[in-house]
Amino acid sequence: MIKINEQVIDYLQQLIDQNIIPGARVAIINATQEEEFQLGNRIAIPKRESFSQKEALYDVASLTKVIGTVPLILQLISQHRLQLTDSVSKFLPEWQSPQVTVRHLLTHTSDIVGYIPNRNFLSAAELTAGLLGLRAGDKLGQVVHYQDVNFILLGWIAESLTGQSIQAAISDRILRPLHLPNATFDPNSSPLDVIPTELDSRRGLIVGQVHDPKTAILGEHSGAAGLFTSLADLTIVAKWLLGQTSYPQVVPDELITACFVDQTPMHSNSRSFGWDLRQERTGNYIVHTGFTGPLMVIDRVNQRALILLTNRVNLFSTRQEYKQYRERLTQIFMQTKKD
Q1: pTM of the model
Q2: What is the pLDDT of residue 2?
Q3: Do 145 and 207 meet the contact criterion of CB atoms below 8 Å apart?
Q4: Burial status of residue 46 (CB atoms within 10 A of its CB: 0-12, 13-18, 19 or more)
Q5: Which CATH fold topology does 3-335 show?
Q6: Cα(150)–Cα(65) distance, rounded to whole angstroms?
Q7: What is the pLDDT of residues 153-166, one digit of tens each?
Q8: pLDDT tens for residues 16-58?
Q9: Residue 87 burial (CB count, 10 A)
Q10: 292: closest CA among 217, 235, 209?
Q11: Which residues pair with 23 in a beta bridge?
Q12: How far apart are CA 320 and CA 161, in angstroms?
């Protein structure tokens, strides 16, 4: 048994006991060893319900960015249909800040500013026009500012090149070639249990529908969220990122390796292609999270990964509070070594 597993599971059980999360599905990969765990309940509100199946689909929110949109953009770059230095305006002429490039969007260094009134209550056409009406601020290429709009714009760029909606392109060009058994943008067509997210005053208990309000409006034209996926799917993705498997027809190996290298224009060593880039003594590792609760930590140097699926929004914990708990989990995973 690996001590790291015990500490991770103990900490997650504390979060469940403290009503921070209702439950969790976890995978821990250590070189050739892999273990999965299930803790707590599928939901806690409106009432506690036990998990009903071995596998389940979770709304993974912003993990969509790095599981779907990033690989698709890297694929288009490998096919020489897109370059990191390309202006967004080359593909989206309505966009009024031509100095913003594909690299800026991928690394969240676009510093996009502006305000869209009543954003969550607009039609798809109105929200699209509002997003295209935003502009780059005076910190372009100088600071990292994580924004969904970066990946919505990347999705629209991909649509202009593929002739498909971004979610259809991800399904056809990334999810299926990776042979992910359950990942989908259409959870209601899946035989798996779909884990509800929030009990919302306007929408009721959200189940089988994307939680993110912008993606709920934009539908298949959002590359920022919308993916529902399982632990089995994310384990396959993690092994791919660890270099344990190779799918060069999806994304060349050298571009997967580039996800572990600083890609920011100002060389801040804080973001790669989509991923939060971290450093430890032995080298870089990458992290990404989702608003609904999930987490992926990929440590390629030490050949290990942590995958967490949970629906923290079901218990209404504040985003900032939960971010601190999830960051603590990341540090427990990274600091604990094998016996």
Answers
A1: 0.96
A2: 52
A3: no
A4: exposed
A5: Beta-lactamase (3.40.710)
A6: 10
A7: 999 999 999 999 99
A8: 999 999 999 999 999 889 999 999 999 999 999 999 888 999 9
A9: 16
A10: 209
A11: 40
A12: 37
